[in-house]
Every structure is written in structure tokens, then in C-alpha cells.
Amino acid sequence: MTTMATALPVRASQAWYKILYVQVLIAILIGVMVGCLWPSIATNDWIKALGDGFIKLIKMVIAPIIFCTVTSGIAHIQDAKKVGCVGVKALFYFEIVSSFALLLGLVMGNLVRIGHGLAVKLDAAAVANYVRQAEASKTVDFVLNIIPDSVIGAFARGDVLQVLLFAILFGFSLMALGKRGERLRGMIDDVAHAVFGVIAIVMKAAPIGAFGAMAFTVGKFGPAALGNLIGLIALFYVTAALFVVVVLGLIARLVGFSIFKFLVFIKDELLIVLGTSSSESALPQLMEKLERLGCSKPVVGLVVPTGYSFNLDGTNIYMTLATLFIAQALGVDLTFGQQLTILLVAMLTSKGASGVTGAGFITLAATLSVVNPALVPGMAIVFSIDKFMSEVRALTNIIGNGIAAVFVSWWEGELDHMTLQARLSQPTVSTTIDTTSTMR
CATH: 3.30.70.100, 1.10.3860.10, 2.60.410.10, 1.10.3720.10. Which one for 17-424? Predict the structure, then answer.
């Protein structure tokens, strides 16, 4: 297995306005300005369609990317036990880190009781749709939903877990074919090259998508819409930052790199997520970058897609923090046992939540309905500001999954430390997707 250390050209002389993250950042700032100055224009359906359209373009290729990378990664491994070992290690890591995220949200919610004294008029009807989705979201249904009714249907719906299951089974099947499967493996690798080429084209529209999403958000909600809930937003931001810097920072230090250098390395993806409020919008590019960082391709192919359903750190923090906030705002005192229940229930309800905006709100409904049904109407308290927290949820989720892939690669002994240090110390390296070196 080779690395991509020589596949990425250095463009120190590249004009600043041609750099993707600079374009996205400028687009976000323009979007904020348009939303503040001309809200009637910013809330136009066509402006909103810019952000929604970009997310749809990215989601269009997520299923084939996951299928190709996971299938190819497994098929190129000669030992089936190795795949199982990576999967077990990844799930163990997910549960441990998710527990820290849930605990941190619970601790911060108890220390900073920001919900006390907050008088908000409830509008249960505004969240009725989310509550209905939550009531239908049972653990047994979630497990059964992993199995697709048909393979075609899984790809058509873009269901990550269903595509992931089929990709794993197909990869093991190719592995069992041995030399007879080499031609098909090569074909899958070629398809992956082509799909990554599609992503490279689509990413050129990232600034347009970020502008549309940000302009619509600011134009519709505006700073005044935050009201007294600004404290919850600030507390959530601080808690998420603490998790990234302290918890993920310690994990990164254990592996041997700086969390801050890692954040700089994936700044393009973070800005895209910030503009679109969806961590899925940067999933393919994140996977490609992690491979270039020195992570094992099979590990990246298994850990990152799985992490998008089982390792949602930002969503976990949000659920415990928001649950306590709602309880405090409604004057409901939660016992220690009920708070412990929040941890256990949230650990289950967070599984399978996608990186799409609003998924965290649906899982919050599922958690509240189990912990204390009296809290469910209180979801209207955070409904109006959920959009302002979804960005940080998505940012924390994508950072957590990136660190997870690096850690599991290190745990497996398949992390190229020289490439890792070289990449993190070269901020001028081009971040454009290189379709000629994605599969290896």
C-alpha cells in the first residue's frame, strides 16, 4: 500500500482569491451581509435553492463514493479478520468518545444553568412533525432499516447505512473471489476515480452554495430572533469548543500531532460545513484528505462512513445540553437517575442521525419522549434557534470523525507518521482533490 505523499502539488504562488476556503469564507461573509441588509431578497426561494442545490449535488455522489471506497478497501485486504478488527476498534472508539461528549454536555448544563428564569411561549404545533418522526424512531426499527428492501433502493435514497452494509458484503464477496475478482476490483477503482472527478467539479460551486445557505439563514431568522436564547447558543459553542480542544486534542496528542494543525489542514471542509450546516457536504473530500494525510485507505473507508451514523459528537453534546436547558426553562427538576437515563437514551437515539440539518432536532425529540414526556412540548423553546446550533453540531461531527479515522489507523499500525507530520506542517499544499491518487 503506497501513500499519496507525492500526489499533491505545492502551489505556494497560487493567488489567494483562487483558494477554495478563501472563496467560501468570502461567500459566507457576503451571505451574512445580504441577509442583514436585504432580508426580503435573502429569503427568496431561489437564494435558498443555492444552498439546498449544492447539498443535493454532494449527496448525489455520497452513495457511490461510500460503496466504491468501502468495497475496494475490503477487497484489497487479504485477511477478513483484519476488517472485523478495524470495525470492532472503530465501534469501541465511537462509544468511548461519544460518552465523553454526552458527559461534557451534561456537566456544562448543570454548571451553567442558563435555562432558569427563561419565559418562552410554547408552540407545540411547530414541532409536531419532528415529534412524530421521533416516536416512529424505535431502536428495533433502526436496526431493521439498516437492511435495504433492495440494493437499488438504498442507492436511490442515498441511505448511508444501507449502502454501507451492501458495500461490506460485496467487498467480502470480492475478497473470496481472489484473482477472479481482480478485474471487477479494478473497475470499481476506476469508477471511484471518475466519481471523485465529479466531486472536484461540484466543489467549484461550494462558494455559491455557502452564500445561498448563509444569506437565507440570516435573512429568515436574523440576530433579533435569538432573543434571550443567545445564552444557550453561546454555551453550546463553548462546550463544543472544549470538546474539540480538550478531548479530541488529547486524542490527537496521543497519536502525536496537534489538533490545531489538523483543523488548519481540513479548513476547506470546515468552511463548507459552516456554510451548508451539513457535515455530509464535505464527507467525500474529508475521506480523500485523510488518505493523503497518511491514514490507511481501508480504515478511512470503514471508519468515516460508519462514524457518520455512530460517532456524532456534536449531536451528543447538543442532546444532553438542550435536554437540561428545556427542563430548566420549564421548571422540571431532573433527578440523578433521569440524567443518567439521558446518557443511556441519547447514546441510542443519536445512532443513525445523518449529517443533514435538523437530524439533531429529531434525535432530541426521541430522547425527550423517553426521559420525560412532559419535556417534549418544550422543544419549541429551541426550535427557532436550532439552525444556529446545527452548524456547530456539524462542525464538531466532522472533526470528530476525522480524528477517529486517524486514531484507528494509528491503533492498527497503519498510519504513515512521516506523511502525517509533513502534511500538517505544509499549510500551502494545495487541497484540490487529486483524482489520480484517490484509490490505492
Answer: 1.10.3860.10
